[in-house]
Amino acid sequence: MGRFxxxxxxxxxxxxxxxxxxxxxxxEDSVSPAERQxxxxxxADAPYFIAEHPKLLEIYTTFPDLYGAPxxxxxxxxxxxxxxxxxxTMGFAVISTLIxxxxxxIVLLTLLQxxxxxxxxxxxxxxxxxRDRSDLSxxxxxxxxxxxxxxxxxxxxxxxxxxxxxQGLETLVAERTADLEAVNRRLKxxxxxxxxxxxALQKARDDLERQVxxxxxxxxxxxxxxxxxxxxxxxxxxxxxxxHDKLRSLSSELILTEERERRRIATELHDRIGQALTISKLxxxxxxxxxxxxxxxxALDGISNLIEQTIQDARLLTFELSPPVLYELGLEAAxxxxxxxxxxxxxxxxxxxxxxxxxxxxxxxxxxIFQATRELLFNVVKHxxxxxVNVSIQKEGDTVRIEIEDNGVxxxxxxxxxxxxxxxxxxxxxxxxxLRHLGGRLEIASARGKGTRxxxxxxxxxxxxxxxxxxx
Length: 472
Known about the structure:
Layout: H1 7-16, E1 20-25, H2 33-44, E2 49-52, E3 56-64, E4 70-79, H3 81-133, H4 147-289, H5 297-321, H6 324-328, H7 331-346, E5 349-354, H8 363-384, E6 388-396, E7 399-406, H9 413-418, H10 425-437, E8 441-446, E9 452-459, H11 463-471
Parallel strand pairs: 5-6
Antiparallel strand pairs: 1-4, 2-3, 3-4, 6-7, 7-9, 8-9
Helix pairs in contact: 4-5, 7-8, 8-10
């Protein structure tokens, strides 16, 4: 700033900044209205009052007296030339600064255009040229080492890599295109063959549909006939089942009727023939003791012995026909007696076991179990070649189980079911059917050389069914 402020300018500024001072005593009789207004302004607002004129600034203030009242009115006159000169100087400084800034801006824009904008524009035009020509082989040569040069080099490297990738993709696309064309040719051939096959298949389908329709009609007729046959067969099976049930009922009724007849015959044999034989023996013994027939005593003794043997045979026959112990002592005692008879007559070692639980059985049920057990024991005597036989009876829930087990030669139950013999198979079949009718079952466990165990199982609640059959 030293080159702009000279001595002449300093003197002019000193001349321009000269201030004039004026003092006016404040008296009530000599104060003009203008001065009164100034005094009022100073007292009301501030200790100073400034009056502006075009070329002059008047500054007023007061000096108080001893009592604080205004004594003197001081006026300072300041020319306004210094303000005008300062404004001109400030305007000159602002314009100078603006001009310098514009010059600097132009220089910066020129440098920016040369250093940044032009290289970026060249690089942009190069990219647009690559896009328009679709030619990635074009290269951009940058001879700069700054950021713009590095950017251009990286862009050129990226374009080179894209060019290599593009060439690889073109090669791959060409190969895939060739493969697809070959596949397309094969597909065309296959489609031609498939169309021929579809035509042949449609023809075969039509033929097959005609055959199916014809076969369906035949099957409808056969199905209707088969349904009639099935219905006839069902009715036949139903009728056969009814006959079978009736046959089992008749078989059970026949057995019970046979038992009743056995008991009647045994009763007649005991009551009539047994008593008659007993009376005959008593009379024969009386005659043998008579003196008149003393010479006939040996003959009479022989007749008496014959009658006694007949009485014993009749008594044994009575027990065989219908053992009284079954009706008087129950099933358990009858089975034990039956084992004693088997041991006594055939020499087998027997054993009987009872669980001692109450088994409330009806008379008809006791008869059926006793007959089945006796028949099984006779089978053991005739066919098993056994030395021991064991019989057990026990209650399991609502059923009664009787097991007859021997140590005989045994047999194959499957062969027995397939080829029942007259003596063994039919008897077991009869027992099985009678138990099945009562809701029970027959179980056979046997093997050759390992003996046989036959189990009779029947529910206790079925006793009422037998009673109904007996009472018919």
